Amino acid sequence: MIASRAAAALFVFSAGLAQAQSPEALGWLRKIHDATQKLSYRGTFVYQHGGRTETSRITRDAKGDVERLEVLDGVAREIVRTRDTVKCYLPESRVVKVDRRTADRTFPALLPERIGALVRHYDIELGEVQRVAGIDCQTVVLRPRDNLRYGYRLYADTKTGMLLKAVTFDEKGNDVEQFMFTQLAIGGVTAEQVRPRHKAREWRVEDTEAAPARMAGWSLSSELPGFHKVIELKRRMGQSRPVGQVVYSDGLAAVSVFIEPMQGGGDPVQAGTASLGAIHIYTREVANHRVTVVGETPAASVQRIGNAVEYHRPPQ
Amino acid sequence: MNERISALMDGELDDQSAGELIQTLGAEREALDTWRIYHLISDALRENQPLPGRSFAAPARPRRWIALPIAASLAAVSLVGWLAFAPQQEAVQPPLAQAVPPAPAGAAAVPLPSAADDYLLAHQGVSPRFSFQGMAPYIRSVSDEARATRPDEARGTRR
Fold first, then answer.
1. Do B126 and A254 touch (CB under 8 A)?
2. Which residues in chain A are closer than 8 Å to B119, comparing Cβ atoms?
3. Residue A275 CA to its chain's centroid (Å)
4. DSSP per residue, A59-87
5. Separation in Å, CA of B1 to nearest CA in chain A
6. CA dihedral defined by A79, A200, A184, A41, rounded to 10 degrees?
7. Is A116 near chain B, with CB under 8 Å?
8. B117, B138 in Cβ contact below 8 A?
9. How far is A66 from chain B (nearest CA, A)?
């Protein structure tokens, strides 16, 4: 029995190793990472999922490290990120949401030196060169080693490494969502182009006041294999709700567990799973708290994490 | 060498060392076999352990596969020789399928929660994907679909 299981396990790894994990593929991931940090660019991109398409424009000024995303269809919502702040402008409700990144808050970035560690969870290999938005792109495929996470097909400009297209696919190989530039110009971005178009004077400001904090008494009865806790925060949502957020990640995919007290008169918890592209949101009630698990993972992964959330009153 | 292969499996090597080692794995048969054996042992162990039971307050340290019993290694060596000629395709599925039990409770489909955009905004900010893709995933937080759960906001009120 053990021998047959072991044999099956060996098939997987010998097959995986034979075809994948070339240093070139890891080198390309690093190149994409560097391009994301170093390039200035301006382009139109579409986000497609489940038959829906949303068009936006992204402008990045690498010199000032400012990036701006504008929704091009319908209401002109926009998000502007500077080195330490993300501001989300919502003209229809005249609200600006502010998420600050303080110095003591470690941002769970994928550091270049950690890219090599992704081979624990993904088989990473180079695909063919394909054209996206008129640009020759190298394909890099990250195939998950289990069905707890999605796979990714990345298309990067062969010259600069800029990521032009990213497709998320499930265990059957079906596409779940994709981000794709339809037009892109690299370089020549002015500071004016990354300034928010909304002045937002007299708009209501919703500051998340996010700060590291421990969620005393809360834990998982079992971890999801490969996903480790990376950060624990307290933040505000909307106008007043205080919410705890615990984040788990395998280095690429992340799952957030939000924990908030059920206050009298609030919506009753409707337990179950909702989805938006590759994002699944699983809600349930634990110890008179609303637990909301949000992750760019298959539904079963957010459900497993959600069902493992438990509360034990901390000793006084 | 074995120590470094073990470190690679545990994700403890930096990108450059990992790249060099992977190159070595491709060139040296002995190193490649060691890599396979460690994975074999790691998976055989994992397959025989119940998945739940770890406390998340104290995450389990990665194991050092190098310290495992010699008997298991020897058994694995003979398997490597035998398996080298076996067809590999059919066997790929079973362990993958076993990795996740049938859909857990909570599979009921529900609409997006009323604060979906807030949750998404908070989540995007902590996802490592940002370092790969810049702001693109933030589109989800301001998409019509995520905002559709807030029909009352236009009047400046909130449930």
1. yes
2. 237, 256, 258, 281, 292, 294
3. 14
4. EEETTTTEEEEEE-SSS--EEEE-SSEEE
5. 17
6. -80
7. yes
8. no
9. 10
Distance CA A238, CA B156 (A): 12
Percent share of chain A, pLDDT over 90: 71
Instruction: Give the C-alpha separation, B111 to B125, whole Å.
Output: 23
For residue A279 the two structure tokens come to 């994002």
The topology under which CATH files domain A11-194 is outer membrane lipoprotein receptor (LolB), chain A (2.50.20)
Is A196 in CB contact (< 8 Å) with chain B?
no
Q: How far is CA B156 from CA A37, A204, A238, A289, A316, in A?
A: 37, 9, 12, 27, 42
**Which CATH superfamily includes the segment(s) A209-311?**
MucB/RseB, C-terminal domain (3.30.200.100)
pLDDT at A97 over 60: yes
**Range in A96-100, A163-167, A174-178, A260-264 with the lowest mean pLDDT:** A260-264
Using the Cβ of A90 and the Cβ atoms of chain B, whether some distance falls under 8 Å is answered with yes
Q: What is the pTM of this model?
A: 0.72
Residue A228 has pLDDT above 60, yes or no: yes
> Please, which pLDDT band fits residue B126 given cuts at 50, 70 and 90?
confident
Mutate to test the interface with B, among A2, A14, A224 (most CBs of B within 10 A): A14
The amino acid that residue B46 corresponds to is R
Containing A257, the helix (H) or strand (E) segment is: strand A254-261
Kindly report, as residue ranges, where domains of CATH 3.30.200.100 are found in chain A.
209-311
Nearest CA in chain A to B14: A113
Q: Minimal Cα–Cα distance from B111 to chain A, Å?
A: 5
Distance (Å, whole) CA B39 – CA A196: 51
Name the β-bridge partners of A79: A69, A88
Identify whether the C-beta of residue A198 lies closer than 8 Å to the C-beta of residue A88.
Answer: no
Where, residue-wise, is CATH 2.50.20.10 in chain A? 11-194
ipTM of the shown complex: 0.88
Residues A111, A116, A121, A125, Cα dihedral to 10°: 120
- DSSP letter assigned to residue B158: -
How far is A300 from A306, CA to CA, in rounded Å?
10
**Closest-CA distance of chain B to residue A75, Å:** 9
